[in-house]
Amino acid sequence: MSSVTTQSTDASEGEVVSVVGPLDAETEDFAQQIADQVESFLLALRAISQESDAGSSISLLLLEISQVLLAGARLGAQRDFTPDTRYQPDVGPEPDLDAMRLRLADLLAPIDSYVFVFDPYLPEVVGSRLSDDLASIATDLDTGLRHFRRGDVEEALWWWQFSYVSSWGNLAGAALNALISVVAHDRLDVETFDADQVAVAEEVLAD
Known about the structure:
Four Helix Bundle (Hemerythrin (Met), subunit A), two-stranded antiparallel ribbon, 60% helix
């Protein structure tokens, strides 16, 4: 049985005491749903990287990123999860996603490089690559999934939640916005769009 750590205050000493108890059924079910969404995203991303049609890949990425961001939003709306131990348990080396990253870079070559603002309250334009960011998102999600598969549900939830608010949530949102921009450049007749950008979008989506 997985456990959850709660805190209470010892009135006589005025100190915080950790109490470890079993996870409730609702939390266990929530964790399973997140794990299913994460696993689906990871499998889909690997499959998309092997596509030969860049146009359909953009549509699929829009769908998959939107769905995993829903999982992230659900994590963000939950209580703060607290792992059982102070230090994160070792779940082995990170998966080797370099081959997938390179395939995505090749598939998305005309639109791979993009810029975004990581924190709108501390605006600074960041240059990045979709292929790099998707691989980084996959690495964060896979780490939580490995905790979950080991039966360490609270650690998995903590990691998914923490990495969502600190890293992969922003990256996924930026990647989604970039892909939406590609579709918009292709489908909307807006004069303010750069002609070269529109041409690239039309070429990619027509493949």
